[in-house]
Design a protein that fits this description.
single chain, alpha+beta, 16-stranded antiparallel β-barrel
Amino acid sequence: MKAKRILCWSSVLWLSAGLTHAQDTNDPARFEKLFKQMQEKQEMLERMVREQKQEIESLKRQIETSRTNALPALAPTPPTVETSTTPPATESTTVETGKPWTPTSPIGFGNARNYLNISFDALVAAGTSTANDIEQLQLGGHDPKQRGFTVQNLESVFEGKVDPYFRGQANVIMQIDPHGETTIEAEEAYLETLSLPLNLQVKAGQFFSEFGRLNSTHPHAWDFVDQPLVNGRFLGGDGLRNPGARLSWLAPTPFYSELFLGMANSQGETVFSFRNEHEGETFMGRPATEGNVNNLGDMLFVPRYAASFNLSDSQTIVAGTSAAFGPNSSGGGADTQIYGVDLFYKWKSPLQHGGFPYVSWQTEAMMRRFHAASFAGDSDIPPLPAETIVDFGVYSQVAWGFRKGWVAALRGDYVFPETRARYEELTETDPNRASRWRISPNVTFYPSEFSKIRLQYNYDNRHGIGEDHSVWVQFEILLGTHAAHKF
């Protein structure tokens, strides 16, 4: 721009000199020609000045607009423990950056610091089974429960940063049971701290306890249509979750190492092996009573330790151990202890594209010690002595992402009692403790990160009942931005 101005003023000076020379030489024709050239240069200079002014005014307007619309910088978010927003109009921009909207951009409201991610996930299954008691065959609360179609889970997630100190998340789910009744439930609703010192974090509200690998994940993140047998038998169909708080500490080690300690209420449907009424049915041969929280001894405690190591640039292993301690519903002073170990291994090719190919292996093993109180007996149940009832369970699964968007998987389940309980000798064998095992192969196709189609076959063998075969097809769609899940 400066060069243009210098050129113009040079031209004017040159023309002025030329005019002076023309006057000195008394050449009217040359004078007129030079005068006309000077007028043209002056007009060009004036036009350039007007254009410069217009550009300056335009830049000023853009600066004022940016100052009005821009948000203050958001505080950095630490690594998430837990991977969408409904799209606005195509020409809209994101609140955080002012860039064009994308399918994974958060929704912003006004000029506030906080933002909100909203997503909706629909999980539906269809299929059939040879079992006459499908609801007893499938132990998970989100498992297919009938021939034909099952609406497994309709989940709305609201997630975002409250301020530089907290983030919040709420998972509201809707289900339709085999009888056609619709239930709506606040599955999770909690806050997490973002800036505590010493690598500490506090989580409080209603949430899944960090027990093992699968319990704290939602059904759409599972590698199979249904949950493992041991999770359903020990932790319940809806998983181990209740109102409470959890403190975690990320240890300053050269590898990932984190210690968790959770504390929650011990009563309700979502603490299956603890103080649960079991819908008025007997549990471990005894009438179940829920009880209330009267002191610290009435709480449920859930400690966990997890560590992760990179075996190589393409291989990672995560190992953990968990426990859950709390009173149970068999009577005063009775308690339940559940112990678990878990292992996860993943190999991803150094030449991978979009995360494929890969191989993952996941295993969990659990033991439950149920200290049952004595029972005086009634018209339906004979007197029962106090006893300790021990059960075991394990599942192991492997998944092979053999090409982009395609995953083949195989899972084996086995649950069994240590010995026959005393109450079973006095009454009858409890089907909720009987040995059973299951083999489940499946194949999943992901057209995109927002949808999937899964085909799964189950072979079940239940002691005292026999063999059953089931085939399920599962469909999922995801709308919006969903927070990332644990690796």
